[in-house]
Design goal:
By secondary structure, the chain is of the alpha/beta class. About 15% of the residues lie in helices and about 30% in strands. β3 and β4 form a beta hairpin. The longest helix is centred in the first third of the chain and has 11 residues.
């Protein structure tokens, strides 16, 4: 038995050093649509520690919400961290992560990123085994967070025999 009432992912939240720089990247390069903004917040006593797991004197400067294509929303924070901020974790670090974006044409998307001066990491990789049919490549946002482009327009090998398919942003109703 899983989490009662679970429907899916609502948003992915992440922190950036400069909200305007992040918005330019998210909107002008990735195509996100700004939806709304929340003002800054600080907590009384240990509220910030209890509710968010941060130093009690940390302050949220602002939060911005974006819709990104046919998938989860983005919640982007700017903090004034009372105890400083660490650089983004690497994929190999505990808590390491990346945000994968499905595109119909990987080569066109990579060309678009490079034309916008985005740090594209290497060249597209062809997947094998259960992921055969997929190609992917990583890239970095201006603040160092890793993103991935992924594409498998003809499906992945595992789909031929699977009882349950992974959710697919190009076919959200399936």
């Amino acid at each position: 038995m899983g989490l009662p009432g679970l429907r899916g992912s609502d948003h992915i939240g992440f922190t950036v050093p400069d909200l305007d720089e992040a918005e330019t990247f998210l909107v002008d390069v990735l195509g996100a649509v700004p939806v709304y903004t929340l003002p800054g917040r600080s907590g009384e006593g240990d509220w910030m520690t209890r509710q968010l797991g941060v130093h009690p004197r940390t302050r949220i400067r602002e939060i911005r919400f974006y819709r990104l294509g046919n998938g989860t929303n983005l919640e982007v924070f700017a903090y004034d961290a009372a105890d400083g901020q660490a650089p983004p974790p690497r994929n190999s670090d505990i808590g390491g992560h990346h945000l994968a974006l499905y595109v119909d044409d990987l080569d066109a998307a990579v060309s678009h990123l490079r034309a916008h001066g985005v740090d594209v990491m290497g060249e597209p990789v062809v997947s094998g085994a259960a992921s055969a049919g997929q190609r992917w490549i990583y890239f970095r946002a201006p603040w160092g967070m890793q993103f991935e482009l992924v594409s498998f327009p003809d499906g992945k090998a595992y789909e031929r025999d699977a009882e349950t398919l992974l959710w697919h942003p190009a076919r959200p109703a399936e």
